[in-house]
Amino acid sequence: MRVAVVENMKNTGLGALDEAGAEIEWFRVWQDGILPLDIASHDALVVLGGEQSALDDEAHPYLPELARLACRFGDAGKAVLGICLGSQILARAYGADNHLGTAREFGWHRIGVTAEGRADPLLSALGGEFTIFEWHADTFALPEGAVRLAMSSVADNQAFRIGRAVYGTQFHFEADQAVVEQWKAEFPETIARIAPGWLENHAELAAHHGVAADAAGLAIARAWVSLINPAEIGILSEASA
Prior knowledge:
Blueprint: E1 2-7, H1 16-20, E2 23-28, H2 29-32, E3 44-47, H3 63-75, E4 79-83, H4 85-93, E5 98-99, E6 105-113, H5 115-118, E7 129-136, E8 139-140, E9 147-151, E10 159-162, E11 166-169, H6 177-186, H7 188-194, H8 198-225, H9 230-240
Parallel strand pairs: 1-2, 1-3, 3-4, 4-11
Antiparallel strand pairs: 5-8, 6-7, 6-9, 9-10, 10-11
Helix pairs in contact: 3-4
């Protein structure tokens, strides 16, 4: 399985996804703006998070092309995954509005799974709710034709699916305890500003939530990787030709 991973911000990290098992090719657009030339060389696409908004084309001119690329992967029946900013880019790609600065969440939070989510392969192993890490201020409207899979009191659209295997998750399921430790070390000033007291309480919070969140994140990662099916992609591509 060949997966193109678009990193929108330096040292984002794959966390739980790295353990799920796939051949990764990195595209560090924060460094050079280079995206995959086409969809033929990869079986799936992952778009990671970042500090920019999904509409910040002036500072990040690759964003419109990334949105179009995600649609091309999805239209070909290939698996697509957008995490946090990535989910916001997917929403934009499929014609939905982004809402900037209206839904701030940080730290480990409880996420509710919808009836559709409990029946969906991505979240079906997690029951009616689960704990996972969040770090965002923006959110988005649900794209037309998308299925809402998860929600919270702050952001109605925590996870959605379009078609066979195009998924967006507002939450950072890939952010296991090791990734959170890395973020804590790299961004202490930002965290102290947006979540006063969190740094001081991190050890207690991690002890209380970390194991369950890591297990949920790994289950989601493995479920998504299981949807990358090159043989099925070939059949779908031939049918659409």
